[in-house]
Amino acid sequence: MIFILPWLAIFAASIFALTLLMNLARKNTTLVTLYLLQSLALTFALLLLSFSTGSGGLLFAALLTLVVKVVMAPTFLFHLIRKYSGHFSATSYLNTPLSLLALAAITAFTYAFVSPAFAHYGSSSASVLFASILGTIFLMINRRGALAEVIGVLSLENAVVFLPAVLGVEHSFALEFAIAFDIAVWIAIAAGFLTMMYRQFGMIDGATLKMTHLTED
Amino acid sequence: MIALLLITPVIAAIIAAIAGRTRQGIIEYVAVGAGIVQTLLALSIALATVSGKTVAMGSLFAADALGAFALLFTTVVGLAAAVHSVGYLREECQKGIIGFRRVREYYVLFHLFFFAMFVAAATASPIIMWTAIEATTLATAFLISFYNKPSALEAGWKHLIVNSVGLLLGFLGTLLFLDAAASAGDPGTFVSWDVLRALSASLDPMLIKIAFIFCLVGYGTKVGFVPMHTWLPDAHSKAPAPISSLLSGVLLNMALIAVLRFRAITDTVIDPSFTQHLLIGFGLVSLIVAALIIFGQKNYKRMLAYSSIEHMGLMAIGFAIGGAAAVAALFHMLYHALLKPILFLAAGNFFLKYSSTKTFKIHGALALIPFTAVVFFAALLAVSGIPPSGIFFTKLTILAAGIGEFPYTMFLVIVALTLILAGFLKSAISMLFSEPPADVPKGEANPWTVISILFLFTLFIVLSIYVPSPLKELITRAASMLQ
A183-189: long-range contacts (C-beta < 8 A, 24 or more apart)? Predict the structure, then answer.
């Protein structure tokens, strides 16, 4: 296990770096591509962990991640973007420099408060992944548009799944079932909602949902 | 018994999915029949667990007293919602608002919601419980956006995104609990609540602290704790009335039970004052914010939604205090699970009559729909804690248990509860006792929408006056599992 720690740190850093890039991306297609790359990094990390620990559960997790998150989800999302002409994402609430500052603050906060809690695990990957979790939440808050929210949830799930693996939780069948079930059904439902949004508002992004209709009768 | 309970909603969902266009009656009767069967099964599970036994099915499912208690109120409210749905959807079909396809979709999702709820209540695994609670989010998302209006769509989307993020954080907390168990010993591939409890002495306190915070924030989103509550008023106010009753009477309680199960383990690892202060903090803020909004609320369904936030806050405070207050909080959960569906179903009758959820558009309800109006008013008083309502006694017990240790908190609770009563009375008086409009016909929509309310209200009155000893024993056992 000790020999793969540098590799795990690299994959965790990749997931975090891709989260940062997601916050800066302006096109929806770029956002989905970044998510695909992030899922690929997660797949490799889980594969590496499975070979080093001889864990069948982790191998199963890696294969499921490959099928659901690297192949199915991005294909589905690209299809939706093409179908509803949602190539361009709308603006964010904060401009790029301010977004970067906020992300820097999130990273600093994680290192100051989260790192000490995981210090005895002998790996900095956990705190990097925590920063990634907060970064994806920031993505969902800062970006306008439904697709960015979908990618945010999926990306958050990537970091959430990888974090316990880094800490050494054995991925059981029940756990894998939970994750695969959640992602597959979630994407189907989110796609259903995006379709309804397109029918209702004529677009799936931009200022589609300002939550201004909630006050109507 | 658990297998039968799990399979009943699945069969009902399949029948609803394959039923032909001319078979709406079959779908409706199957829903009511499934509701009756489920209630009887939950009752037998509850009776079996009263003696301290666990009703198990394999290693994945084991209904203890707390699980059986959750199953009991879930099935009772479910039966009432199934009966009410028949009348409510028939009325909507007659008005041409929805067609048969929507009715079929409704019942399929309705049964799937119950399947997920039963799994969440009866499972022995924290991971499967998380999966099931997440499944309820997915099942209810389309039910909230049922009317396909822009506002309903937005409410459904908000519900989906906010709860998904919240539950992912809850998932992280759950995984951290499992990680702590893996570090403490070798719990094997299947970690149950019992395994976590058995290993609690050797769990890493720092990790458990972080894990509990994630679980509290994550499942707390589903409970509706302020400030994670933003999805709740929109979802409750936009969903069809029977679905609102399920969200409020069943789903929020189940999520709170999830928080409490994690709290019971956390308290054996670290100083219990940590979780106590967190629960009191979230509970008090939820109560105060809900009170302020209820007082100025102009939409009666949103008012009821904020009332659910208020009650979740009060229950959190009761569980945090512990002892007699925890038992009272579980009784409060039961009474709230019966009363809030009554209020939402009655609100559904107002909507069917006036086609509006704005309080100022409802006039003379007492003259036009006297049964609904009287029950609505009585339930509103009961839920506010007016004696001899059971909620009066539970509130009194919580306040009495907490006044010594947390006098300022209890003072704020009393102020908030008074404000809420004033807000309720303000809305109810304008809705019920004003002059009825001339163009709205008199009379209830149909018997189905009356029977459901009558059933729950009768049950509430009976349980306020007399609690059968097996139920008392079940609740006492369930409360002891949370401490």
Answer: A183/A68, A183/A69, A183/A73, A183/A154, A183/A157, A184/A68, A184/A72, A185/B135, A185/B138, A186/A153, A186/A154, A186/B138, A186/B164, A187/A72, A187/A73, A187/A76, A187/A77, A187/A150, A187/A154, A189/B138, A189/B141, A189/B142, A189/B160
| Interface mutation vs chain B, best among A193, A195, A208, most B CBs within 10 Å | A193
Q: Quick check: B127 and A213 CB within 8 A?
A: no
B161, B192, B351: best to mutate for the A interface, most A CBs within 10 A: B161
Facing residue for A196 by CB, picked from B153, B207, B210: B153
Query: Per-residue pLDDT for A147 more than 90?
Result: no
Interface of A with B in 135-164 (CB under 8 A): 137, 140, 146, 149, 152-153, 156-157, 160, 163-164
B59: which 2 tokens? Answer: 């290693």
Cβ-based contacts under 8 A for chains A and B: 113
- pLDDT value for B186: 60
Cα A17 to Cα A95, B71, B120, distances in angstroms: 19, 45, 36
CB contact under 8 A, B182 and A213: no
Q: Give the H/E segment covering residue B57.
A: strand B55-57
For residue A174, give the nearest of B128, B156, B157 by CB distance.
B128
Closest Cα in chain B to A157:
B168
Q: Which residue on chain B is closest to A173 by alpha carbon?
A: B189
**Amino acid of residue B177:** F
Q: Is A186 on the interface with B (CB under 8 A)?
A: yes
Question: What pLDDT band is residue A216 in, cutting at 50, 70 and 90?
Answer: very low
Burial class of residue B409 in the structure, from the number of CB atoms within 10 Å of its CB (0-12 exposed, 13-18 middle, 19+ buried): buried
Over residues B217-263, the pLDDT tens digits come to: 999 999 999 999 989 999 998 899 999 999 999 999 999 999 999 99
CA distance B187 to chain A (A): 10
pLDDT band at A3 (very low <50, low <70, confident <90, very high): low
Residue B57's DSSP bridge partners are: B61
Instruction: Look up tokens 């850093």; give the residue.
Output: A13
Average pLDDT, chain B: 90
The domain of B193 spans: 2-481
- The domain total for chain B is 1
Mean pLDDT of each 10-residue bin along chain B, 483 residues long: 92 90 85 95 92 82 90 95 93 86 92 94 90 89 87 89 91 86 69 84 85 94 92 91 93 94 92 94 96 92 94 95 92 95 93 88 88 94 91 94 92 95 92 84 85 94 92 91 81
Dihedral sign from CA coordinates of B109, B115, B120, B121:
positive
Of residues B131, B155, B358, nearest to A182 (C-beta): B131
Specify the pTM.
0.91
